[in-house]
Specification:
It is built from two helices and ten strands. With 191 residues, the chain is α+β, with helices and mostly antiparallel strands. It has two domains: 27 residues; 159 residues, Sandwich (Jelly Rolls), CATH 2.60.120.600. Strands 1-2-3-9-5-6 form a six-stranded antiparallel β-sheet, with no helix packed on it. The relative contact order is 0.21.
Length: 191
Amino acid sequence: MRVFHLAYLIALGAGLGLTSAHYAVAGRPLLGMVEIGAWKTWPRSGGREIDPYLRAYLARGVHLPLGAGEGLELIAEHDDQGRALDGRCRYLLSGLVPTTRGWTLSVTDGDGRAFRLPLDRSGFTDAEVLRDESGTLRIAAASWPQAGDWLPLPTSGRFQLRLRLYDTPIATQAGETRPESLPRIERLDCP
């Protein structure tokens, strides 16, 4: 009887330990995350003081973080109202981009992999986007063609927007960045 209890406790401990370890590194950890409006970032992901959970997460995948002096990656999985981004909907990304040497905006799946989208375009660079006199950008994001700067989306399902800022001063000050200094993500309609 004692052997059965001991075996049960060992199996339970091993199961709980393996399950908790899996969940600790399965997704980006909440530890070290900074939220700026709809955007999330992990500013220490490319520095020396990276926490062990984020290091384990990065080791599991194909993610290569920007170094501490190289820039900052921001990820959005929700619009400004907190609704999950959905490929069936149409969005408007508008506003300013912080001071940076260059930036890219791309559409990825939940694991950070690019989709095979129409026109083989899954993103923009700062050189490809039109801006008005004040520097404000307006990018339409939808699974069907839009006028102006159009970012194709998958026809259905969830996706992420990834904004990578290269050589930017906010990389070291992400916690003090205001939501107004990043593009807004507004859901226009959803069938």
